[in-house]
Specification:
65% helix; 2 strands; two-stranded antiparallel sheet
């Protein structure tokens, strides 16, 4: 598989490259939530950034707004497993990355 500038794989990487996209999708995994509830559940995100993220994910077809709450679409649900995989990788290897970064800073 080639990873080209305009390939579908690059598109998928872009979806999870934004810091807040996977966090918001993961926060919706158990069902619909209103904006304020999402913001409290996530923590550390401003109302403006959450609104921008929700709009972007809705544009991408990953979530929808219904009855004042945001919910994953079937397409959005398909990203939960890869997000969980990234989380598992981070738990297993995140400390190694931090050690390498610290070593590079002190070199």
């Amino acid at each position: 598989m080639d990873f080209l500038a305009d390939c579908r794989t690059r598109l998928a990487f872009d979806l999870v490259a934004n810091t807040w996209n996977p966090v918001v999708l993961w926060a919706l995994r158990d069902g619909p939530r209103r904006h304020g509830d999402l913001r409290r559940a996530i923590g550390g995100i401003s109302a403006k950034v959450l609104t921008e993220t929700l709009r972007r994910l809705e544009f991408d077809g990953l979530l929808e707004r219904r009855e004042g709450a945001y919910a994953l679409t079937p397409l959005g649900t398909t990203l939960l497993a890869p997000i969980e995989g990234f989380g598992r990788w981070a738990a297993d290897h995140g400390d190694d990355v931090v050690v390498a970064q610290d070593r590079a800073r002190s070199a």
